[in-house]
């Protein structure tokens, strides 16, 4: 499977004996710096991108209709509704079984 799993971000935020050394200027190093900046901005301002000039992007909040997200790759890119087919399945399950709302 591609993508991140639960708690994969902890190695970026907190160094430990399993954390590899990153080459200065590498894509990995740049990605970790951006990731940490998003988290610290969120902790400080309740907004991971309070100033578009800082990271070159604004991360819009999630709404009932739209899941806004940022892809942290070679560049930061904003997009909407990841895994839309999977989410449609969950919406359909909920609509067929409204009592499952307690689990959402």
Automatic annotation (TrEMBL):
Entry's Gene Ontology molecular function annotations: carboxylic ester hydrolase activity
Signal peptide span: none
Zinc found in the keyword field: no
Transmembrane segments: none
This protein's record includes keyword Secreted: no
Cited Gene3D superfamilies: alpha/beta hydrolase
Keyword annotations of the record: Glycoprotein, Hydrolase, Serine esterase
Stored InterPro entries: AB_hydrolase_fold, CarbesteraseB
Domain spans labelled Carboxylesterase type B: 2-90
Pfam families in the record: COesterase
Entry's family note: Belongs to the type-B carboxylesterase/lipase family.
Protein name: Carboxylesterase type B domain-containing protein
Organism of origin: Rhamnusium bicolor
């Amino acid at each position: 499977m591609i993508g991140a799993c639960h708690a994969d971000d902890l190695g970026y935020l907190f160094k430990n004996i399993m954390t590899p050394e990153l080459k200065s200027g590498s894509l990995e190093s740049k990605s970790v710096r951006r990731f940490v900046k998003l988290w610290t901005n969120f902790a400080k301002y309740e907004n991971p991108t309070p100033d578009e000039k800082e990271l070159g992007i604004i991360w819009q909040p999630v709404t009932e209709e739209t899941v806004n997200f940022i892809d942290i790759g070679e560049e930061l890119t904003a997009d909407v509704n990841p895994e839309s087919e999977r989410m449609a399945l969950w919406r359909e399950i909920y609509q067929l079984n409204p009592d499952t709302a307690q689990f959402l």
